[in-house]
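Translate structure to sequence.
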């Protein structure tokens, strides 16, 4: 039988002829050919029970028929047949409800006949149907049409019919056209010129957000780099999911559109789209070619020819192309120009930086700056609502991690719930486990956005990501990550870099990694009973690592420290890889970087029942906190350590923890609590034969008695403790106790004994390499010499203290040295320099909030200003010192404060106040049995004045 007497061949012939007519601009003739082709159909082909082979053939033929139907409707819409074909398209839409092209044609026909609401309803219907039946969202073409209908875009008005200047023959073999002789060779797709006809500029960019906010520098970068010029420009934007990459790229594309007059194309490559697989390059090319006006029938079937046709299109146009949501370099590379076009701009957006794409200029999109987050809230919620509770608005932005997607979802929820206040919503977000649950809407979800990145990982990387979420601190290095994952630091670093490339980790400093708060919440959401053992074991490995690292750092920074080794708890978890410290500076730097991590890990250990490890790690951590002057953090962590030590049933751990807590109370002026805690520690130490701890607790109790005015009882305990330290060879603790003894001798009017004790303390510190504590001992020695009138000797020792203090991290010691330098300068007539030194001393102590330390230095500062003639300032400083001392019952501080007030008030002519304060000071000194700085003349003239002795008792 001749081919053209078979309906199928005749159908194919008409379809191909229609494609040729359309390519030549003969749209009416193309419609006629398609009508003829469809008139051949009488119903389903091969209808019946023919088995799977015939069923498959029937499906293929039905698909070809529907393609012809869609092509016919497209041509008729181009010819202006709008109201005439609505019912026809609707009939096919009802028969094939999931076919998006038919639905788009129906929406367009309805819109052009003034039925915009019905058009929008059709989109909502297909969106719900796709979600219910397939669990997906409408494709980009349908979504773009919906957006343009919403905006009443002029592009939707009856356009000038679009054609291709030269035909691109279909390569499908179905049609055997009649031959009038030898056929001319068909043009290969890559040889065809596919420039659209004049009057049509294809633009498929999504709509531009009217409330685009922030990103000034990144936006300007895209404009600067995207300016039209010779050759191709390829710019990439990478960033975590929800950072606003698409919004930024589309915003820039609209601004640059005029520079690319041949068209502006957008395609979603679906690299990270819920429920969908990434588009293959050949699928993406077909979409892009259709956007340029090529009908389906003219696009080749084989991938190579499709890509060649796309490269031909790029080679002859000045196009702007947005390749959004790229998954990997292999998906994007075939879509990039292979030659130098006359001037194309390619904008690539992807979560990870596609490093295998050469010639791409990348910029990374992070979270919004806080001020831009605030501006976005104002623009989306309204100025009045934000101004009504600015603190809650700021907290909302913080909880959303300054992530644009999270902020927009949050404001959308608030818009839909006008009765919700910002504070109410913030409280909901703060509920444990509710953050990601609340940040979702019908079509968007922060959790889903993150999950797509997570699911793209290999299995071992997913496990690493989940275990890294166990880390409780703000950031971590490869050593901590290695402990959590259970690998070497080098292997951990490679994994961290891969997670960084996947935009699941952040890096604000080389070698250190962190989670975005919302990503951390997602990592926590992965924890369930199935991974509980892995999580607990990872927590134990982390504690074991930090304990080993702090032990190594402590051996360098605190050489006289009592050693301890909780080996049984650590060996079961494996031996961690530890960093190496070249010296004190490296060890201190590590402590400073890890301080917050260490504190958080102590609490993590307590939650996971690693109580023994937690208590010993706390002991090593408070040493650094004390050196930094962070005493309140020190006290809080010491309380956690005591609780953990009690549950560990380790008496040594309990003694160490109680000793640190007693020291924290002492430094903060909580002397009654000091005695209570130290008394408990003394009992535990004696019960278990821990003589080192016994001696330390005797020191602490003795010094607490002394500062509260019970000098005799305190002195006895202090001397007994010193003897026991010396017997046990505890050099560090002996030096601390000797400093306290030096201060006591000075208060009791025995400067020679005070000098001897301080000299012994300083010598012990030099022998053991305890330079920080040596500064404190030298300060006490300087005070003793000043009190004895030996200024030259005092200056010698102070010079050494200041020299050592250049590398000191302990602000209290440095502040006291500067205050004593001010006294010496004042005595030698260097008044201006004295005031400079005392100002620096006060500035060092102000942030610490420790009453005893501030009281001491303020009393010295009051003396310096008094000698300089600044009586009002002297009065203010002594009043502050007296008030601080009164609040904590620090009697010696109160007495010196009152004495300073007397001197200042006398100079200012406030004689009645001076007499009253003189009487109060005399009573305090007498009660304590101290004969110091007492004014004995009737008019209140001071007989002798010495600076407040510095103490070293508040040592760890």
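Result:
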């Amino acid at each position: 039988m001749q081919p053209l007497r078979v309906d199928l061949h005749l159908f194919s012939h008409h379809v191909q002829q229609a494609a040729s007519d359309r390519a030549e601009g003969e749209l009416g003739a193309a419609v006629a050919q398609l009508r003829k082709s469809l008139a051949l159909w009488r119903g389903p082909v091969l209808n019946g029970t023919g088995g799977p082979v015939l069923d498959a053939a029937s499906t293929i033929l039905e698909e070809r028929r529907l393609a012809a139907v869609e092509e016919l409707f497209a041509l008729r819409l181009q010819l202006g047949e709008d109201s005439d074909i609505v019912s026809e398209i609707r009939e096919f839409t009802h028969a094939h409800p999931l076919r998006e092209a038919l639905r788009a044609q129906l929406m367009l026909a309805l819109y052009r006949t003034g039925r915009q609401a019905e058009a929008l309803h059709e989109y909502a219907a297909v969106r719900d149907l796709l979600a219910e039946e397939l669990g997906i969202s409408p494709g980009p073409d349908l979504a773009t049409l919906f957006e343009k209908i919403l905006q009443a875009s002029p592009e939707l008005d009856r356009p000038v019919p679009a054609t291709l200047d030269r035909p691109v023959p279909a390569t499908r073999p179905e049609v055997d056209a009649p031959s009038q002789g030898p056929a001319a060779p068909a043009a290969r797709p890559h040889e065809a010129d596919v420039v659209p006809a004049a009057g049509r500029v294809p633009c498929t960019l999504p709509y531009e957000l009217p409330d685009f906010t922030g990103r000034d520098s990144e936006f300007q970068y895209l404009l600067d780099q995207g300016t039209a010029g010779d050759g191709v420009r390829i710019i990439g934007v990478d960033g975590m999911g929800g950072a606003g990459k698409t919004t930024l790229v589309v915003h820039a594309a609209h601004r640059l559109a005029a520079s690319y007059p041949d068209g502006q194309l957008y395609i979603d490559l679906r690299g990270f789209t819920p429920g969908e697989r990434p588009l293959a390059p050949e699928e993406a090319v077909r979409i892009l070619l259709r956007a340029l006006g090529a009908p389906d029938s003219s696009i080749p079937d084989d991938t190579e020819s499709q890509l060649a046709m796309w490269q031909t299109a790029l080679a002859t146009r000045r196009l702007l192309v947005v390749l959004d949501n790229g998954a990997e370099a292999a998906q994007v590379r075939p879509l990039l120009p292979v030659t130098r076009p006359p001037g194309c701009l390619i904008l690539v957006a992807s979560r990870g930086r596609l490093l295998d794409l050469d010639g791409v200029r990348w910029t990374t999109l992070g979270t919004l700056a806080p001020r831009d987050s605030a501006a976005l809230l104002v623009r989306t919620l309204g100025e009045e609502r934000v101004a009504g509770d600015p603190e809650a608005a700021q907290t909302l932005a913080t909880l959303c991690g300054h992530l644009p997607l999270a902020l927009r979802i949050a404001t959308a929820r608030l818009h839909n719930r006008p009765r919700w206040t910002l504070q109410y919503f913030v409280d909901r977000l703060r509920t444990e486990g509710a953050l990601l649950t609340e940040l979702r809407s019908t079509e968007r979800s922060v959790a889903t956005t993150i999950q797509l990145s997570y699911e793209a990982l290999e299995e071992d990387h997913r496990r690493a990501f989940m275990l890294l979420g166990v880390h409780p601190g703000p950031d971590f290095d490869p050593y901590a990550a290695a402990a959590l994952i259970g690998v070497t630091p080098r292997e951990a670093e490679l994994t961290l870099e891969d997670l960084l490339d996947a935009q699941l980790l952040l890096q604000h400093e080389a070698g250190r990694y962190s989670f975005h708060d919302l990503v951390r919440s997602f990592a926590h959401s992965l924890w369930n009973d199935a991974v509980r053992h892995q999580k607990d074991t990872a927590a134990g490995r982390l504690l074991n690592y930090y304990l080993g690292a702090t032990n190594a750092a402590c051996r360098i920074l605190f050489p006289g420290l009592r050693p301890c080794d909780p080996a049984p708890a650590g060996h079961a978890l494996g031996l961690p890889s530890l960093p190496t410290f070249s010296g004190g500076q490296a060890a201190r730097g590590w402590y400073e970087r890890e301080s917050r991590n260490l504190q958080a890990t102590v609490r993590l250990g307590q939650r996971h029942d690693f109580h023994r490890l937690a208590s010993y790690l706390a002991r090593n951590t408070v040493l650094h906190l004390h050196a930094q002057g962070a005493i309140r953090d020190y006290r809080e962590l010491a309380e956690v350590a005591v609780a953990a030590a009690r549950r560990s049933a380790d008496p040594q751990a309990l003694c160490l923890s109680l000793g640190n807590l007693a020291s924290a109370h002492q430094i903060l002026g909580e002397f009654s609590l000091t005695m209570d805690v130290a008394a408990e520690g003394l009992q535990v130490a004696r019960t278990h034969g821990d003589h080192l701890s016994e001696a330390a607790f005797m020191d602490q109790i003795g010094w607490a008695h002394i500062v509260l005015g019970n000098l005799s009882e305190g002195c006895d305990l202090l001397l007994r403790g010193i003897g026991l330290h010396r017997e046990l060879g505890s050099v560090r603790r002996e030096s601390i106790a000797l400093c306290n003894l030096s201060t006591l001798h000075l208060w009791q009017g025995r400067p020679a004994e005070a000098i001897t004790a301080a000299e012994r303390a300083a010598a012990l510190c030099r022998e053991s390499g305890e330079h920080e504590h040596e500064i404190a001992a030298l300060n006490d020695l300087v005070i003793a010499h000043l009190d004895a009138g030996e200024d030259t000797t005092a200056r010698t020792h102070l010079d050494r203290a200041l020299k050592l203090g250049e590398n000191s991290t302990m602000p209290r010691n440095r502040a006291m040295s500067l205050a004593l330098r001010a006294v010496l300068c004042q005595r030698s007539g260097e008044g201006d320099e004295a005031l400079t030194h005392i100002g620096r001393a006060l500035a060092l102590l102000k942030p610490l909030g420790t009453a005893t330390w501030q009281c001491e230095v303020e009393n010295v500062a009051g003396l310096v200003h008094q000698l300089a003639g600044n009586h009002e300032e002297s009065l203010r400083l002594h009043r502050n010192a007296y008030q601080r001392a009164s609040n904590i019952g620090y009697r010696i501080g109160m007495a010196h404060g009152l004495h300073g007030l007397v001197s200042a008030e006398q100079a200012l002519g406030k004689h009645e106040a001076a007499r009253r304060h003189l009487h109060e000071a005399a009573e305090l000194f007498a009660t304590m049995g101290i004969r110091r700085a007492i004014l004995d003349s009737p008019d209140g003239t001071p007989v002798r004045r010495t600076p407040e002795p510095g103490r070293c008792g508040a040592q760890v």
